[in-house]
Amino acid sequence: MENAEVKLEVKESDMEEPLVSAVLDIIREAMKQFTIDKEVATYIKERLDKEYATTWHVIVGRSFGSRVSYEMSHFLLVKCNSKVNIMLFKCGY
């Protein structure tokens, strides 16, 4: 997806705006560099773990159901290019 604009739509979030903005930048980078969902997820997780401490969980795919526990102010669900969904959350307990 290199050189293509990555369109992101926040579907659900309880993060503070500065963190949302930083995470969306990381997602854009991942979507530009990788085309395989697992590689996108790995890139995002490794960046978040490094920059915002562990333990982050990242799910990337076209369709999935979920019910997760997470630390307050650390959940984000994004739709990318009207196709792929990315759910990420921090949960270290």
TrEMBL record:
Pfam families named among the record's database cross-references: Dynein_light
GO BP field: microtubule-based process
Entries under InterPro entries matching the protein: DLC_sf, Dynein_light_1/2_CS, Dynein_light_chain_typ-1/2
Keywords annotated in UniProt: Cytoplasm, Cytoskeleton, Dynein, Microtubule, Motor protein
A GO molecular-function annotation: dynein intermediate chain binding
GO CC terms, sorted: cytoplasmic dynein complex; microtubule
Primary localization class, coarse: cytoplasm
Localization of this protein: Cytoplasm, Cytoskeleton
Family according to the record: Belongs to the dynein light chain family.
Name this polypeptide is given: Dynein light chain
Organism the protein comes from: Pristionchus entomophagus
Organism placement in taxonomy: Eukaryota, Metazoa, Ecdysozoa, Nematoda, Chromadorea
